[in-house]
Amino acid sequence: MEFQRSSGVLLHVSSLPSYGGIGDLGPAAHEFVAFLGRAKQHIWQVLPLCPTGYGNSPYAGSSAFAGNPALISLEVLRDWGWIGADRMDGLPGGAGAVNFEEVEARKFPLLHEAAENFLDRALDEPALAEQWAEFELFSRDQASWLDDYALYAVLRRAFNTGAWTEWPEPLRRRDPHALAAAAAEHGRERTIEKVLQFAFSQQWNLLKSAAEGSGIRILGDVAIFVNMDSADVWVHPEIFELDEDLKPIRVAGVPPDYFSATGQRWGNPLYRWDVLAERGFNWWIERIRRAVEIYDIVRLDHFRGFEAYWAIPAEEETAVKGEWIKAPGLELFRALEAALGPLPLVAEDLGMITPQVQALRLELGMPGMRVLQFGFSSKGAHIHLPQQFVPATVAYTGTHDNDTTQGWWNTTKEKEHAAVEALVGPVNNGPAWPLIRAAQGSVAEIAIAPVQDLLELGSEARMNTPSVAAGNWSWRAPENCWTEELAERLAALAEVTDRENDPLEKQGTREQGSDGASH
Question: pTM of the prediction?
Answer without folding.
Answer: 0.95
